[in-house]
Amino acid sequence: MFFKNVMVPYDESEHATSALHIAFGMVGDDPGAQIHVVMIVGAGAVPAPSLVGGAFDTPIDTGSLMEYDNMMGALVERTRNEIERVVEDARDGAQCKVNVVVRTASAPVEGIAEYVADHSIDLVVMGRRGLGALRGMLGSVSFGVLRSVDVPVLTVK
Ligand code: ATP
Ligand code: MG
């Protein structure tokens, strides 16, 4: 295949799952190609340490910071395992390499653009919409990625 590093930004939505199937369909059995399935966990996914402590006026100590790190770590690990399962289903025996990544970033668009630059991504396949409730032409993450990366982006339903 012409494309060697294909990224599927994944948010567990139906459109993103369909992007995953399309990416496997395109890359298929090319052993020289790799599919990068990447979920960006926004910085606000777990409440700030002071909120984890349960009270605004409790001073932040090392204990609660560790607790925060552990919560974030556990969240990322659980999500990664869940995505691995979906990916194995979509792979359906295809021989290409796969890398499942769950990363924290300030926001999905920034995290996706950074990953594209750092991993020589040559094609992005993503959902036209995601988990958002509003129905429209294009979700804000898809729109942001189209604006901020220079590689081809395929958006799918
Ligand atoms: P909005 O978020 O603007 O309300 P939406 O949720 O319907 O709208 P997007 O968030 O733009 O639409 O989702 C479009 C595609 O972007 C998804 O199918 C998925 O491929 C990708 N995507 C969205 N959020 C993430 C994320 N956190 N990490 C990785 N990929 C994501
Ligand atoms: Mg969304």
Please tell me the CATH architecture by its name: 3-Layer(aba) Sandwich
- Rg to the nearest angstrom? 17 Å
Mean pLDDT: 89
Report on the biggest sheet: 5 strands, parallel
The total count of strands amounts to: 5
Named CATH topology: Rossmann fold
Question: Strand order within the widest sheet?
Answer: 3-2-1-4-5
Distance between the termini: 23 Å
Q: Approximately how much beta-strand content do the residues carry?
A: 15-25%
| The CATH top-level class label | Alpha Beta
Class by helix and strand content? alpha/beta
Shape type:
globular
* Helical content class: 40-55%
Reading the helices and strands in chain order gives EHEHHEHEHE
User: How many helices?
Assistant: 5
What would your notes on this structure say?
With about 160 residues, the chain is α/β, with parallel strands linked by helices. The protein is globular. The chain has a single domain, classed as Rossmann fold (3-Layer(aba) Sandwich), CATH 3.40.50.620. The chain is built from five helices and five strands. The longest helix is centred in the middle third of the chain and has 30 residues. About 45% of the residues lie in helices and about 20% in strands.
